[in-house]
Amino acid sequence: MSDPTSATSEAVAEAGGGATLGKPRGLMGDAWRELRVRPLFWISIAIITLVLLIAIFPGLFAHADPNLGMLSRSRKPPSGEAWFGYDQQGYDVYARAIYGTRASLLVGLLATIGVVILGSVLGILSGFYGGWLDAVLSRVSDIFVGIPFVLGAIVILTSLNTAGQGGAVRIISLVVLSIAALSWPVAMRIMRSAAITAKQQDYVKAARALGASPTRIIVRHMLPNCLAPVLVYSTIALGAFIGAEATLSYLGVGLRNPVVSWGVMINDAKDYIRVAPHALLFPSAFLTVTVLAFVMLGDAVREALDPKLR
Amino acid sequence: MGRYVLRRLLQMIPVFLGTTFLIYALVWAVPGDPFAGKCGERECPEQYVQAMRAQFNMDDPLLVQYGKYILNLLQGDFGKTFSGTEVADRIAATFPVTVRLAIVALIIEAIIGISAGIVSGLRNRGFLDSLVLVSTLFLISIPVFVTGSVVQLVFGIQLGWISPTIKGTGFTDLIVPGFVLASLSMAYVARLTRASISESRRADYVRTAFAKGLPQSRVVGVHMLRNSLIPVITFLGTDLGAFMGGAIVTEGIFNVPGIGGLIYKSIQTKEGVMVTGLVTLLVLVYLLMTLLVDMLYAVLDPRIRYE
C-alpha cells in the first residue's frame, strides 16, 4: 500500500480510528485502509448513494405523477414516454419505483436502527452482568427466535391492523415495529458474545481496578470494542429488512396504499404477471439491486474488520 | 449424553410455553370481533355468540384460556375451528405436503450448496470461485417471491418447460417449488462450505494425508469433508424448521396445498385455534431440530463430548 499521505490520515481520522501520522492505527483505521482498495466496496457505496439520492429527492429523477392512475393506459408495455410501462391501474411504473424508494428504504433503516439499539443494549447488559439477568434475557430472546419470521410478522400485522385504517405514518411504523420485534435477538446474541469476550480482556480489568463504575466501563471501554460485529450485521440486515418489507407487502399485510413502496408495487402486479410482467419485474429489479448493494457492503466491511480473513 | 438431552428438553419447556403464549395472546387478545361476518349478511344471533364464547373459553382471563388450551393440547387435542372442523384433521391433510416440500428443498440446497462450496473452496480465487461468490451474492439479494415469480413466468408461462403451478403433491412435483424455496439458503450453504473448506485445506491432517500419497478424491471426500461439514450440517438442520415456517410465499406462488396457505387463510379469517395450533407445531419442529443438530455434533465429531 502507498505511504500515508495527509489525505489518508484525514480519512483515517474520519473513519473513527482517530490515528494520526506515526501512531499505530486502530481497528477502524486498518479496516478503512483495507476497504479503500476494494472495487466491490466502491460499487456498493455508489449504488447506495444513488438510492439515497432517489429516496431524498425523487422529484429529480421522475417527472410523472406516481399517484395518477389512468385506466386508458392500463398495462401498456415500456415505451419512450414511460420507460417501464404502466401497470394494471395505469400508474407509471418508473415514477412509482422512484417514489417508492423512500418508503422501502425508510422501513429498512428504521427497523435496523431499532434492532441494533434494542439488541445492543440488551446484549451488552446481559454479557456484562451475566447471572440471572443474562439467563432471563437469553430465554426471552429464545422465545422470539422460535417464532418463524414471516408467520410472526403476519400475525402481528393482521392483529394490529384491524384497529383502524390509519395514515402513512401508522402503516410504516407498524411494519417497522413487527420487523424489529422479531429480529432483535440476533443483534443481542452477537453483542452478548462480543461483550463476554471483551469483559475478560485486560483493559476492562484495568479499568475496573482503577475504580471505574460499571456504566463507565460499558460505555467507554466495552462498547467501542464490541461494536464492530454488530455494525457488520446491521449493514447486511438493512438489506435483508428491505427485502422483508417487500415480502410482507407482497403478502398484503405490510405497507399498502396510500404508501408506495417496491413491495406494494409487486403486490399490485403479481396477479397480472401473465399480461403485464414488466410491472412486476422493474420494482423487483430496484429491490434486488438495493439489497445487493447492502449485502456487498456488509461483506466488504466484514472482511475488512476481520483480521483472520486478510 | 442422556443427561444432556434431558437438560436440553427441560430448557425447551419455558421457551415452548413462552412462544406459544405470545402467539396465543396476539391472536386472541387483540381488539376485533372474530364473529363479524360469520353469519352472512346479518349480525350473529346472541345465543350463537354466547355459545361460541363459552366453547372457546373467551370469557376467561387470558392466562386461564391459555392454560386450558395447553392442557388440551398436551392430551393431543388441537381443538375445533369456529365452524366445527377438527384442527387436527386439517393439519393432517396439509402438514405432510409442507414436510415433503421442505425435504425436497433441503436436498436441493444440500446438493447444490455443498458442491458449489467445495468447488470454490478448493480453487481459491480462481474463475469458478469468483463465479460462485458472485452468484451467491445475487441469490442472497433476490427475495424468494421474486425468484418464484420469475421462475414461474419464464419457465412456466413463456417457455412452457414446467407447469406454472404444481400438478400433484408427490416429491417430483415439488422439485420446482423446492428449488425456489431453497434458493436463498443454498447461497448461504455454499458460502459456509467454501469458508470451511478453504480453512481446512491448510490443516495439518490434510497435509499429512497428501503426504501419505492418498488420492485427492479420498483426502477431500473423507478427511476434509468430515471435518468441514459440521457447521454446514448445523445450518441445514435449523433450516428445515425455517423452510416450514417460511414456505408461505412459495406455496402461494405455486399453489401448493400446504400449511402456509392454511395459516395465512386462518389468520385472515381470525380462526385463532387453527393459527395457534399450526404455529405451536412449527415451534416444536424448530426446537426439536435444534436439539437434533446439537446431538449430531457428537456423532460427527467424536472430540465433542456432552456432560
TrEMBL record, chain A:
<feature type="transmembrane region" description="Helical">
    <location>
        <begin position="230"/>
        <end position="253"/>
    </location>
</feature>
<feature type="transmembrane region" description="Helical">
    <location>
        <begin position="167"/>
        <end position="187"/>
    </location>
</feature>
<keyword id="KW-0813">Transport</keyword>
<feature type="transmembrane region" description="Helical">
    <location>
        <begin position="105"/>
        <end position="131"/>
    </location>
</feature>
<dbReference type="InterPro" id="IPR050366">
    <property type="entry name" value="BP-dependent_transpt_permease"/>
</dbReference>
<feature type="transmembrane region" description="Helical">
    <location>
        <begin position="143"/>
        <end position="161"/>
    </location>
</feature>
<protein>
    <submittedName>
        <fullName>ABC transporter permease</fullName>
    </submittedName>
</protein>
<keyword id="KW-1133">Transmembrane helix</keyword>
<dbReference type="Pfam" id="PF00528">
    <property type="entry name" value="BPD_transp_1"/>
</dbReference>
<dbReference type="Pfam" id="PF12911">
    <property type="entry name" value="OppC_N"/>
</dbReference>
<keyword id="KW-0812">Transmembrane</keyword>
<feature type="transmembrane region" description="Helical">
    <location>
        <begin position="280"/>
        <end position="301"/>
    </location>
</feature>
<keyword id="KW-0472">Membrane</keyword>
<dbReference type="GO" id="GO:0005886">
    <property type="term" value="C:plasma membrane"/>
</dbReference>
<feature type="transmembrane region" description="Helical">
    <location>
        <begin position="40"/>
        <end position="61"/>
    </location>
</feature>
<comment type="similarity">
    <text>Belongs to the binding-protein-dependent transport system permease family.</text>
</comment>
<dbReference type="InterPro" id="IPR035906">
    <property type="entry name" value="MetI-like_sf"/>
</dbReference>
<dbReference type="GO" id="GO:0055085">
    <property type="term" value="P:transmembrane transport"/>
</dbReference>
<keyword id="KW-1003">Cell membrane</keyword>
<dbReference type="InterPro" id="IPR000515">
    <property type="entry name" value="MetI-like"/>
</dbReference>
<dbReference type="InterPro" id="IPR025966">
    <property type="entry name" value="OppC_N"/>
</dbReference>
<feature type="domain" description="ABC transmembrane type-1">
    <location>
        <begin position="101"/>
        <end position="298"/>
    </location>
</feature>
UniProtKB/TrEMBL annotation, chain B:
<dbReference type="Pfam" id="PF00528">
    <property type="entry name" value="BPD_transp_1"/>
</dbReference>
<feature type="domain" description="ABC transmembrane type-1">
    <location>
        <begin position="95"/>
        <end position="297"/>
    </location>
</feature>
<dbReference type="GO" id="GO:0005886">
    <property type="term" value="C:plasma membrane"/>
</dbReference>
<keyword id="KW-1133">Transmembrane helix</keyword>
<feature type="transmembrane region" description="Helical">
    <location>
        <begin position="274"/>
        <end position="300"/>
    </location>
</feature>
<keyword id="KW-0813">Transport</keyword>
<keyword id="KW-0472">Membrane</keyword>
<feature type="transmembrane region" description="Helical">
    <location>
        <begin position="131"/>
        <end position="154"/>
    </location>
</feature>
<dbReference type="InterPro" id="IPR035906">
    <property type="entry name" value="MetI-like_sf"/>
</dbReference>
<feature type="transmembrane region" description="Helical">
    <location>
        <begin position="232"/>
        <end position="254"/>
    </location>
</feature>
<dbReference type="InterPro" id="IPR000515">
    <property type="entry name" value="MetI-like"/>
</dbReference>
<feature type="transmembrane region" description="Helical">
    <location>
        <begin position="99"/>
        <end position="119"/>
    </location>
</feature>
<feature type="transmembrane region" description="Helical">
    <location>
        <begin position="12"/>
        <end position="30"/>
    </location>
</feature>
<protein>
    <submittedName>
        <fullName>ABC transporter permease</fullName>
    </submittedName>
</protein>
<keyword id="KW-1003">Cell membrane</keyword>
<dbReference type="InterPro" id="IPR045621">
    <property type="entry name" value="BPD_transp_1_N"/>
</dbReference>
<comment type="similarity">
    <text>Belongs to the binding-protein-dependent transport system permease family.</text>
</comment>
<keyword id="KW-0812">Transmembrane</keyword>
<dbReference type="Pfam" id="PF19300">
    <property type="entry name" value="BPD_transp_1_N"/>
</dbReference>
<feature type="transmembrane region" description="Helical">
    <location>
        <begin position="174"/>
        <end position="192"/>
    </location>
</feature>
<dbReference type="GO" id="GO:0055085">
    <property type="term" value="P:transmembrane transport"/>
</dbReference>
